Amino acid sequence: MVPNTSRRRFLTGVAALGLAGVGGRVGAQSSQAAGTIRLDGEIPGWRGRDPASIRGETNPTLALEPGRVYRIVWENVDGTPHNVALLDADGGTIERTSFVTERGATQTFDFVATEAMAEYVCEAHPGSMRGDIRIAGEETAAEGDGSGDDTDGSDRFMPWGPTVRTETVADGPLSAPLGFEVAPDDRDRRFVVDQVGTIYVHGSDGLADEPFLDITERLIDFSSARTDSIEERGLLGLAFHPDFESNRRYYVRYSAPPKPKTPDGYTHIERLSEFTAGEEGRRGRPGSERVLLDIPSPHYTHNAGSVAFGPDGYCYMGMGDGGGSKLEAGHAEDWYVNNGGNGQNVTDNLLGSILRIDVDDRSGAKPYGIPDDNPLVGRDGLDEHYAWGFRNPWRVSFSSGTLFVADVGASNYEEVNIVEKGNNYGWNVREGSHCYSTGSPTDPPTACPERTPPDVRGGEPLVDPIVEYPHVYEGNSVGLAVIGGHVYDTDTIPDLDGAYVFGDYSQNGEPRGSLFAATPPAEDGQWSLEELRIAGGPDGSLDAYLLGIGQDTTGELYALTTDVLGVDPSTTTGRVQKLVPETPATGSAAGDTSAAESAGTENGTATNGSGAENGSDAASDARGPGFGAVAALGAVGSVAAAAIARSLASDGDSD
């Protein structure tokens, strides 16, 4: 898409998809429509259906004639709230439709094309659902002199930072890798979590052929899930007990089917379970499961999923706000005027929070204990809550005792927080540091509370994030759903040392994930941001959707990516891509992987085959990219097959 600033330089007017009432209201049943335009609406973008010239295109450019009447018929295909808004060339709203929230529902309207129109967008997801239209007879930027290119960076929200390469260290059977963990022992191995239900070991010789753990049969049934839209359920998190080397215990978050007592209308249960690996720690032993916590979840999005042990030895777990419309079941009442929210309600459920429990304490009625200093112990609220006010905390990490939590935004902003005990991080009163409105998400109020009322936990402040960025800046997409990362703790890439490296799922709904670096200020305030330029990547981005970022024991970082939209266990486009310097070190591969793993390049990105031995009040506020989620996305590509993990297969561990 041509940036708005470029459009203003070259076009006297560019038409966008119009609405009833633009340039003279046209009745919805008008028979004067010059032509019908059919679109499918979903978070990754508008998809053209008719006429044939736009069929199959994402966010197609619409060529219209000024003064002609057109009819738009679009279908909501993902059950997420969408509408259509006309913007002028300066980004101003000309007119908008109401939100459509039900999957399969359609909206029809007629409009008169005018030269004032510049873009059509979904106001809930303007970063990905955004298209141009050209009025007949007008020159496009592509037909101009080429100065529409943003070569000076003036249209960018954040400047370019260091250039890095990515080296594929694992692919093989992976579909949607979203987690990457290291067990606290002395073995050279990493554990890759695949959303479809498996955990694989990655060792010095590559990815094991057989999974460490396979619980696909315990997850929700993916056969009924959409493969062309966001799906945020699945195997979502893994953490090893700090004493794993001696007790072999580890903890897994996954989405289980509803139980008989699950509330009506809820789609699944978010489950935390303990497993015990075999004596040698090479087999996950699925038969050892001990369920610790089952949390009913109303919608298929906003599940979060991270599990991590803090320096205090306690287990921390992110919980999303339940997703879906705030008008639907599963959203508790709270103190603010926005519809529901869970993040502001800590008495009715465990959603919208960071939880902290003691997995070693079995002395009470629950299969876990509550740390005595949890902030709501002895107060009004559920004792498991550690911090609250979150929408969809997608990935948490500790660095030198500091807890970083990335929280996926709704309509306008993404954020990263430093989380401390008992703090309220603002959702759904605020999105980032900005006011939010469920009734008009893209036109929120300029003033809103900065703390809760005195009768709500004593008037606690709403804490601002350390990092925030918009979905759209100067007409350009910045991102859709933040992906939490880690503090880079090594000198392999010197320019990143000490920076918090994180990313975004997709710039615009296409397989174009981004990586960012945040650096703390000298004093209090938001951190400075840079975007990492991926050598050989399309426009400096990743060539896939970003689902997670992992870190090994040496401090090196790994981008976890997929090409697939939706969760489809039959696909194997998942990759684990290590971040390495732009210029490889002479005579050796960068980082701790073997130089023998390197096997060439694809589009400027180093690759290596997987090895062998060793054995992822409109109802418009809740369904933005829930991870906007972080569910998987894209088309199937070729991947290397993993070799046989002989040592894993013969280690003698059993269920």
List key phrases describing it.
ten-stranded mixed beta sheet; disordered C terminus; 655 residues; single chain; five-stranded mixed beta sheet; disordered N terminus; mainly beta; globular
User: What is the average per-residue confidence, as pLDDT, rounded to a whole number?
Assistant: 82
Distance between the termini: 53 Å
Can you tell me the residue ranges where pLDDT is under 50 for at least 5 consecutive residues?
Answer: 1-33, 140-151, 587-625, 627-655
Helix content: under 10%
The number of distinct helices, counting runs of at least 4 residues, comes to 3
According to DSSP, the number of beta strands is 40
What is the SS-derived class?
Answer: mainly beta
Q: Which value, in Å, is the CA radius of gyration?
A: 24 Å
The global form is: globular
Proportion of beta-strand residues: 25-35%
**Major sheet attributes:** 10 strands, mixed
